[in-house]
Amino acid sequence: MPMRYSEDLIEEVRSKNDIVDVIGEVVKLKRAGSNYVGLCPFHNEKTPSFSVSRSKQMFYCFGCHEGGNVITFVMEYNQYTFIEALQYLADRAGVSLPKMEYSKEAMEQADRKSRLFEINSKAAAYFYYKLRSEAGKYGYAYLTGRGLTEETIKKFGLGYSDKYSDDLYRYLKSKGYADGLLNESGLFMVSEKSGMTDKFWNRVMFPIFDVSGKVIGFGGRVMGEGKPKYLNSPETLLFNKRNNLYALNFARTSRNKKIILCEGYMDVITMHQAGFTNAVASLGTALTSQQANLLKRYTSEVLLLYDSDEAGQMAAMRAIPILKEAGIDSRVVDLTPHKDPDEFVKAEGFDALNARLEGASSSFMFEAATLAKEYSLSDPQSLTVFEEKLSERLLEIPAELERNNYLEALSRKYGIPSELLRRQVNTLALRGTPAEHYERPKSGVQKREEPGQGILQSQKMMLTYLANYPEAFRETKGLITPEDFTDSLCRSIAEGLYRQQEQGGVNQAQLLNGFADAEAQKQIAGMFHASVEVENEAEQDRAFTDTVLKLMNNSNEEQLKSWDGRDAAVLKKLISEKNEIEAFEKGGKMLHLPYENSGENKGE
Description:
- This protein is of the alpha+beta class and 604 residues long.
- The strands form 4 sheets. It has a 5-stranded antiparallel beta sheet with strand order 1-2-3-4-5.
- Strand 9 and strand 10 form a beta hairpin.
- The longest helix is centred in the first third of the chain and has 28 residues, at 104-131.
């Protein structure tokens, strides 16, 4: 694996690119107190909620919660990788980045990958050429017969694999590639009887690109009645179908921040040709957790545009919890009376499909509608079971306002008295019906265990104090340490803040350099920009003191719970600490922070 650029170099590049200047080049910013505000470039809004702080060298949107430092912004705005963003900013500031150093093993693997990319690129070019040859006339007729234009065929690099099973092999051998490397490419099959033969033949070919636009594999649709109808590349050093999405290289640069998820290649290609350039598809497999996490890098909302038949609707049902697990909201598009997006676009056009996309059902209402199909709502007994199932689903929604909105919507749609449904939900809640009662398709992603929301909020608030008030470290010395933050992300942030404080002072933007995950950066930016609304100095001191005490109590309780019962000295120490906390509370001592009514130091 390549060595990462040093922290000092990353910080040099970041510090030489003033965030207000960089963002100001693409967003119209206006001075507002100590900050700058403007319309957020990451979501549509009419009232500015996008804030840029020169003192913190950070940005944060109070509307969509995007946030981070200047590197984060360049990554998100331009859809760059970290290295691409760093290179862009280094060039802008006149900083030379050294070439990345590789170990011998990494260099060998990088060389193999480079050669495989070459093979795939040459194969894609050869298939593209073959499509326009006499041999490819049936493939070309198939694509144009499906309504694809020459421009679309070129954009997606569509091609044709000849009916002769050694055609591509002979071509690539003529280019000097060894059998061992060709075998690794996934483009060939090897047998004792036939030797090396083409995996794809007599098929329309769909090159599969990674997010940077390099060919990593292929899909092929057979011409005629051969089986299987669609065939994908096997897993290789470059290609894993569970980790990639078709056309994401195009969709990631779309200014539409929602992503449309389709089922197949032709659906996506038709959507792009019709103007929906934010469409992607999974690669011959049901949506995976890896694909959902990949989507999360580029969007917070997915529109499921699956076939309208039973199989397509069930696929949508399976995708919803996987997307939810990744932190993505999903909506389901109704294509009836048409079977798939390709058929819909040809029959009704852009405007009609765009209206369907705009009116897509929330995943919750779609699941309710799917559930309704399982019951006879004209039968009292069946209706009762359906109402109970709806109540259980409503109970899964933690936010009371959202739950009430869906309750009212279900009441209107299915003619169920809202008060009756509300009483049923309350009855289930009193019984302690757990939301986890419902089985979900396993996504493979293990949820991070979090403390109770009250404790988590206190930990986040403490980080706000530490990030914005140097005095917070002095006031809490001997009371709390990073180990008292029981949430893993909060602990990592606390460790960074304490380390910076020991080295001379907090640098919020620099701290973000240590967190590669975009979601973590958003959360951190949110914490650093948060504020505690208080009326006066006494109220602020009370809020600060209460937050510290909550952390101390929670940390002590967690340690007591995890005590293994062996070392009595550990128990004695924890009990002593508990007594000290109680004495602190009873003594009524207040911890103090400077009070500034302007809010300049409280999250800006």
